[in-house]
Amino acid sequence: MKIYPGLVAFPLNILYRLWCSSLRITQSGREALDMLDAQGRTFMVALFHDELFSLMHVREKLRLVTVVSRSRDGEYLARLLQSLGLKTARGSSSRHGASALKQISRIMREEKYHGVITVDGPRGPRHIVKQGAIILAFNTPAFLIPIRLFPHRAKIFNSWDRFQLPLPFTKVDIVIGEPYMPRSTKLGDEEIARECRELEARLNALRPLQSPSAGREQGGEL
Questions:
Q1: Exposure string (b/e) for 94-122, b if CB count within 10 Å is 16 or more?
Q2: pLDDT of the residue at 211
Q3: Is 41 left (phi over 0), alpha (psi -120 to 50) or beta?
Q4: What is the pLDDT of residues 86-138, one digit of tens each?
Q5: How many CB atoms lie within 10 A of CB 83?
Q6: What is the pLDDT of residue 167?
Q7: Beta-ladder partners of 57
Q8: Structural domains of the chain in order of their starting residue, each with its CATH number
């Protein structure tokens, strides 16, 4: 039975907010985001696909725009994100990607939104940075800000990204890296590859504020 996405967005919104309100979230480096926002400077939040669950809960007053797949499942996600106050551009890095990146860049420049992109989405390889974030930061232009989200206890799904669903009432460490601009003055294949490696290294260098408990993957896979 087909369920209209608009009917699902409201209950999912309530469930998401209740779920996230139970989490004990600690943020490190948040001042950098708020300072850039206060200065009217545009930035691009870059994170791994499996760690994105808690991010929307802590956006506060930040105006964010992100890419969502044109698939049917993507329509449900887009409606949920819109109900949480985000703008969405439809596309992906593998299909309709160029138009989605152009949409986001325009929204960031003209409407003063900040971008959010999962650097290894939509289909992986897991934790390997693709070119979308680099191209967007270069063309807008915008600061790149690497972010990692570390739930101490989570359900790990048997998906390409091993998506992490934080268990209710667990601790979540949100670690925000130092903002930086792409160093390249042009974006050929070599420059894009170098910038991808740089962003990937910065993401991998971020660590939890505390050692996650041994039960981080409790519950097995789905």
A1: eebbeebbebbbebbeeeebbbbbbbbbb
A2: 73
A3: beta
A4: 999 877 645 445 788 889 999 999 999 999 999 998 889 999 999 999 999 99
A5: 17
A6: 98
A7: none
A8: 25-205 (3.40.1130.10)
Structure token pair of residue 213 = 């408990």
pLDDT of 3 > 90? The answer is no
| Residue type for position 75 | E
Q: What is the token pair recorded at 120?
A: 């290894």
The residue length of the chain stands at 222
CA distance 93 to 14: 30
Spatial distance between the Cα atoms of 155 and 85, rounded to a whole number of angstroms: 26
Q: Which of 2-11, 47-56, 104-113, 122-131 has the lowest mean pLDDT?
A: 2-11
Distance CA 20, CA 22 (A): 5
Cβ-based neighbour number of residue 220 at 10 Å: 8
